[in-house]
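Good morning,

Attaching, inline, the backbone tokens for the sequence recovery test we're adding to the shared suite. The designed sequence is right after.
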């Protein structure tokens, strides 16, 4: 899939903001512990990806009712839905000097109510394009892996269910996703207001 940058300037994909707060001490310390500044960009990106995918459970898998949205909060509480985990991974990558943005898919549960799924795209030094990664977390039926050559995402959208890939690489979190995450008092409330499309 051909991805398009939301912002033409690549520096936008290294910036810190309220969501991808990679200047926060916890994000900086986590990035340092994972090898930022000592590993090559590919190895660091793969290590950061594995950390977010495997060491921070998806809140739906564990039944955790808390809703996180800021990268530092995801790392501190060690929980989040797909979009929150994507915020954490993008922040860790940016902390390590790897440009990273947010991507989205519209997915369904075999024809049930659709929802927006969050993932990231990164751009390694010397690369001419973006590579999407899905840090959601594996479980039976979900088998995502770090890869820059061939996408190995949690899900491939199925047109027959109205599922789609959104081709834009966002430099900042999509406003509809961020609004839902920030306003939800818990995960059941989040699902009631969570976007079904972008």
């Amino acid at each position: 899939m051909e991805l398009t940058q939301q912002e033409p300037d690549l520096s936008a994909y290294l910036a810190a903001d309220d969501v991808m707060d990679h200047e926060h001490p916890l994000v900086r310390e986590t990035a340092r512990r994972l090898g930022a500044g000592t590993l090559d960009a590919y190895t660091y990106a793969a290590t950061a990806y594995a950390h977010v995918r495997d060491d921070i459970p998806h809140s739906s898998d564990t039944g955790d009712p808390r809703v996180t949205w800021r990268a530092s909060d995801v790392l501190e509480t060690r929980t989040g839905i797909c979009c929150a985990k994507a915020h954490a991974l993008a922040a860790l990558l940016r902390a390590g000097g790897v440009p990273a943005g947010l991507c989205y898919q519209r997915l369904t549960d075999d024809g049930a109510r659709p929802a927006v799924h969050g993932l990231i795209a990164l751009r390694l030094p010397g690369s001419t394009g973006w590579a999407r990664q899905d840090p959601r977390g594996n479980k039976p039926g979900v088998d995502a892996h770090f890869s820059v050559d061939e996408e190995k995402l949690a899900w491939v959208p199925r047109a027959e269910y109205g599922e789609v890939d959104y081709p834009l690489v966002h430099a900042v979190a999509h406003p509809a996703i961020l609004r839902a995450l920030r306003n939800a008092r818990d995960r059941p409330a989040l699902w009631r207001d969570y976007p079904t499309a972008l």
